[in-house]
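User: For my dataset I need records formatted as: sequence, then structure tokens, nothing else. Please produce one.
Assistant:
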Amino acid sequence: MRVIDLPLNAIRRPLMRQTDPAKVAALMASIVEIGQQEPIDVLEVEGQYYGFSGCHRYEACQRLGLPTIRARVRRAPRSVLKLHLA
């Protein structure tokens, strides 16, 4: 597993998640002040990146207009991706 700064627009988010607006706002303030502290987890499947967690951090970075997000990337076969989508 590796930790990289991944372009936000390279991450596919196939599952819609509800986010708490107050939590997103708090994360935005924290990211502006001290930077992103905890990476999100991303699956890399056949060169494509899929995010299933870290929805509040993802949305906070997106709303801030940041080009990248710190991500912990784990390579996986398509069969693992299918388990996440089930």
